[in-house]
Fold this protein.
Amino acid sequence: METVHFSDSIRYYIVKMLYHLGFGHLGPSLSIADALAVLFNEIMDFNLENKDKINHDWFVLSKGHAGPAYYATLMLKGFFPKEDLDTLNRNNSRYPSHPNRLLTDGVDVSTGSLGQGVSQAVGLAKGLRLRQDSHNVYCLIGDGEFNEGQVFEALTFAVSQKLDNFYVLIDNNKKQLDGFIKDVSLEYNFNNILEALGYDSFEVNGNDTKDISRAFKALNVQNNKPKAIILHTIKGCGIPYFEELVNNHHSRFNAHESKILEDYMKDYEERWGK
């Protein structure tokens, strides 16, 4: 599957899951669809054959509330049937709102408490280095997570340990639970901060798969420096109504919004099929 088709499909299944549920983290899930498409379709050495082994690339979704995007990605890679997605966040489901490695096939690390995923990812990268394993660890975090001091502790540890097998991807959609970043805390210049810490850093249009792919190619060098990709994204990307909705972190859909989601799914099915 071409990566653009893959990202469109991730969005479609995000919408389908949350439409059936009636609520959920639609905005922050849609914003990372393109990054996940590039990671799982082009970059990572991770598949059904090596998922239960130690020797593979690792992924940590530190912004665990975007679990629906992660589940859609894993389903498209063949880890479980698409019918399973209809059980999202329901009683006894294997697909809770936040990823749980003990429940969901293909999930490497359980996440949800914001800020802690970065520490787990850096620890994994250090462990791979100690075992002389050449694989990488990719961690996707939200811009609002930078409110957590633990994030900075982990990022600086990666520099001190010269972990060039650690990649941090920042979903810079400029919003968090309580509103716009600039109204809640500081609006960081992530590129300047990470370069100052000692990272190889790259800024991209985080909703353009080709731009993201170019960043990975540019950063693919062993130089004892961890890597960072700042993804300039739009929360709710792909559905104009939800892109413009101010409170688009978590939505409980009314009749009008449900109709918008229905139309979005119909448009996808006309273009790509069910």
About this structure: The CA atoms of residues 48 and 94 lie 18 Å apart. The longest helix spans residues 3-21. The two ends are 15 Å apart (CA to CA). The chain has one domain: 3-272.
